[in-house]
Amino acid sequence: MASISSLSAEDASLFRRFGFGRREEPPFRCVHHAFEYHVRSNAGAVAAEHLGATITYGELDRRANALAHHLRAMGVRPGARVCLLVQRSIPMVVGIIAVLKAGGAYVPLDGGIVTDSTLAFVLENAKCTLALTLTDYVHRVADFPNINLDEVMKSQDVEYDALEDLSSPDDSCYIIYTSGE
């Protein structure tokens, strides 16, 4: 890896002069804090659309709070990792926000293409505590603690308050496994 010492004197001078801006604190400590801020001012706005279905910010927040309570009851806290065995969908977005609200990190895998050996490797290597999955992929994690997101989306009629926020900016948000080097 190159360092500033490998630059010409002129480039090193320019880097020192313009390479560092003033330090600014981000307006939100965690990703889900930014989401919750947006919910407060735009609850009725469409947050996600997929194949003609939509969900508002308010509904997404309500569903994510309900699922986050369930995740917390199952032990998801900062440091916990939750596999998302899904494809792009509204339930996927609910799962992401819920994992973050519970304090965990999500580990996304495309259920339509991930091989069984890769799935097994990621569950073990990432030390996932459970899997959130769509109905089409439940059979792939039948011997692993799992929650069916499609079922969760059908059954959330109870209103939940926001969870106690245990998250900090030092916590992981997600863990990505790629096929690249």
Automatic annotation (TrEMBL):
Keyword terms: Multifunctional enzyme
Highest taxon above the source species: Eukaryota
GO cellular component terms given for this protein: cytosol
Domain spans labelled AMP-dependent synthetase/ligase: 35-180
Membrane-crossing residue ranges in chain numbering: none
SUPFAM superfamilies linked to this entry: Acetyl-CoA synthetase-like
InterPro entries (alphabetical): AMP-dep_synth/lig_dom, ANL_N_sf
Xref: Pfam families: AMP-binding (PF00501)
Gene Ontology BP annotations: amino acid activation for nonribosomal peptide biosynthetic process; secondary metabolite biosynthetic process
One example GO MF annotation: phosphopantetheine binding
Secreted is among the record's keywords: no
PANTHER family to which the protein is assigned, alphabetical: FATTY ACID SYNTHASE (PTHR45527:SF1), NONRIBOSOMAL PEPTIDE SYNTHETASE (PTHR45527)
Protein's name in the database: Nonribosomal peptide synthetase
Species name: Phanerochaete sordida
